[in-house]
């Protein structure tokens, strides 16, 4: 084990009584921020870059999308983006291919960038589809004697 290994072992045992801060995980936060000009873009980038733990800030002004990577929390990034005076929210869109019913009223959004639809819970869409199909199922039921004169 050697002297170095022994000292490391002892320091681990003695240091275990102290509380260690949990390390934040590296994550990517995507925001939708309303930006009209280069000045707006620079203001948002400068503000988000000043947060501790931020590794990179990428801005796509055409999609109104800001991507922040680093050891940060989504709530703090959103709060900092709103502090610039711009309207900001967590990125509300998902790729078109990931949604089972992209043209459902809840998912379709005219303001969404090309190839994206609004992120919705799948249960809300299927519940409305099921409610729509129920009248047809009961209309031709064998339990209903007035359902169809052909049967």
Number of β-strand runs: 6
Q: Report Rg.
A: 27 Å
Helix content: 25-40%
State the shape: flat
Largest sheet: 4 strands, antiparallel
Low-confidence stretches: 123-131
Walk across the major sheet and give the strand order. 2-3-1-4
Mean pLDDT, all residues = 77
Broad structural category: alpha+beta
Distance, first to last CA: 88 Å
Order of helices and strands: HEHEEHEEEH
The DSSP helix count reads: 4
Strand content: 15-25%
Describe the structure.
With 151 residues, the chain is of the alpha+beta class. Helix content is 35%, strand content 19%. A 4-stranded antiparallel β-sheet has the order 2-3-1-4, with helices on one face. Residues 123-131 have low confidence and may be disordered.
Give the topology, please.
Layout: H1 2-15, E1 27-33, H2 38-49, E2 54-60, E3 65-70, H3 74-82, E4 88-90, E5 93-95, E6 116-118, H4 122-139
Antiparallel strand pairs: 1-3, 1-4, 2-3, 5-6
Task: Describe this structure in a few short sentences.
This protein is an alpha+beta fold and 151 residues long. It contains four helices and six strands, in the order αβαββαβββα.
Task: Summarize this structure as a short list of keywords or feature phrases.
4-stranded antiparallel sheet, flat, alpha+beta, 151 residues, two-stranded antiparallel ribbon, single chain
